[in-house]
Amino acid sequence: MVFDLLTLTAVPTAVGASEAVHQQRILDKEAVSEERKAEFRLHVFCDVQSRKRDEVHDSIVILRDSKLYIWPKDPDTGLPKADDDGEAPHPFTGFYHPYPDADLPHRPIPAVPVLGLVSTIPPTPAKSSSLSEKSKSTSKSKTTKPKLHWIYADKSTRELKYGPRAVACEHIIGPWDWTEDEEGLVLDGEESLVVVEEEKGGKGWAVYWDRDDDRLKDVGVLEQKRVLRCSLERRLVVEEDSDKIHVEET
């Protein structure tokens, strides 16, 4: 009789756990829908009253030196304009992806997955093989396939950066999302991204997370640098323009 009573008591618990797992699978499936995984680039919309507005409005987000910056667009391609050396910086090219549960402890089940944001990163030159010095000088430099890094907000400075998971998980990794029209980029439920003029000349604007909506006054940026509110808008990467993304767990 005691055994039967214990068995009956365990049934609701088992059913509840099974239902929770089922609901979690549904939530996980929604988080990796085709719409969420569609690759996009980020274009900047800025309508503030500022003499610097033209340096910011209608630019494009790029990745450089582990940070997110904005850059002038080539009017013909809509991609980053080539610099003085003839090279164009690497544009943000990414999509939403659930952040691994292993880095998010103490979450109940079921729970809505925390949507992370990933992007391809600037390619790094592959290590050259044992070629002769002559062949090295004439051969074209080879690059590795693009791989993904996580986009995150630095918890101290609020700069938007990119890096491997081991680095990103120490900072603000999400949740990322989009606005109701599925265009504007949202972090932690708010469209609260700004650009900061770190260097003058039109190409020194970096992207930050303005968590408290005070133009970064609380972290001491506003007193030293120009801060402009803006919107980062998704523009889907058309199929013929899309690179084959090589997903590498980093």
Automatic annotation (TrEMBL):
**Keywords, alphabetical:** Signal
Region annotated Disordered, chain positions: 123-142
User: What residue stretch is flagged as signal peptide?
Assistant: 1-16
This protein is called what? Uncharacterized protein
